[in-house]
C-alpha cells in the first residue's frame, strides 16, 4: 500500500530544501538509470525549479540530456546501502534497477522512473536548456512538474520527523560512504 500523495507544487521546494541526498532517475527509449547525488537544491518557488549536479560524463546525464527529463527521489534511512550502491557503479555496465532489485513506477506527468518504497518523496523534473552551460558545467537546472511524498513524513506542505517514521528520515552524504540521517525536529519560537 502506497502512502504517497501528490504535493502541491507550491511546496515542492520543501522536499529538498534541507539538502538531502537524492536518487536521480533517467530514461530514454529502453534505457534507464539511477544514481545518487549529494548536491541538489531549490532555486525558484513559482514555478518550482531545482538545480542538481549530474556529472557530464555519467550515463544518467546522457539519458537526461537525450530525454529532457529526470526524476529526483528522496531516499529514507532504510535505503542508505542502496543509495551508496547506485552511486558507486555505472549504469553503462548494466541496468541498476535490475541489478539491485529496484521497483520503480512511472511518474504521472513525464513518465520518469520514480521510487516510493523506502523513499520520503519524489519530483518529476523537466530540464531547462542552458546552452552556455550544457558543455561547460555539471549543474542541471529543471522545472518541477509533479511531486509526491509519503504522508507519514511529509503532509500538508510540511515535514514531520518523528521516532515512528525513522526509516523515512532523509540521508545527507558526508563523503566516502558516510551519511548523516536527519534527526530530531525542533520548533523555533519568534523573538519576544
From TrEMBL:
It comes from the Bacteria. This is NAD(P)H-flavin oxidoreductase. One of its GO terms (molecular function) is FMN binding. Keywords: Flavoprotein. Residues 14-156 form the Flavin reductase like domain. PANTHER family: FLAVOREDOXIN (PTHR43567:SF1), FLAVOREDOXIN-RELATED-RELATED (PTHR43567). Transmembrane segments: none annotated. It holds the Pfam family Flavin_Reduct. Belongs to the flavoredoxin family. It comes from Orrella dioscoreae. InterPro entries: Flavin_Rdtase-like_dom, Flavoredoxin, Split_barrel_FMN-bd. SUPFAM superfamilies: FMN-binding split barrel (SSF50475). Its cofactor is FMN.
Amino acid at each position: 500500500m502506497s502512502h504517497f500523495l501528490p504535493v502541491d507544487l507550491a511546496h515542492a521546494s520543501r522536499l529538498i530544501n534541507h539538502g538531502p541526498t537524492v536518487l536521480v532517475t533517467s530514461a530514454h527509449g529502453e534505457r534507464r538509470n539511477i544514481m545518487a547525488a549529494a548536491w541538489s537544491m531549490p532555486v525558484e518557488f513559482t514555478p518550482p525549479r531545482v538545480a542538481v549536479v549530474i556529472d557530464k560524463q555519467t550515463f544518467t546525464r546522457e539519458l537526461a540530456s537525450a530525454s529532457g527529463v529526470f526524476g529526483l527521489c528522496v531516499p529514507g534511512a532504510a535505503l542508505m546501502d542502496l543509495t551508496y550502491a547506485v552511486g558507486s557503479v555505472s549504469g553503462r555496465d548494466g541496468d541498476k534497477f535490475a541489478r539491485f532489485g529496484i521497483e520503480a513506477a512511472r511518474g504521472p506527468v513525464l513518465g520518469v522512473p520514480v521510487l516510493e518504497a523506502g523513499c520520503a518523496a519524489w519530483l518529476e523534473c523537466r530540464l531547462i536548456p542552458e546552452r552556455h552551460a550544457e558543455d561547460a558545467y555539471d549543474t542541471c537546472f529543471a522545472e518541477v512538474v509533479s511531486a509526491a511524498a509519503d504522508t507519514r513524513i511529509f503532509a500538508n506542505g510540511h515535514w514531520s520527523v518523528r521516532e515512528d517514521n525513522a526509516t523515512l528520515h532523509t540521508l545527507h552524504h558526508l563523503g566516502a560512504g558516510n551519511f548523516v540521517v536527519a534527526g530530531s525536529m525542533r520548533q523555533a519560537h519568534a523573538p519576544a
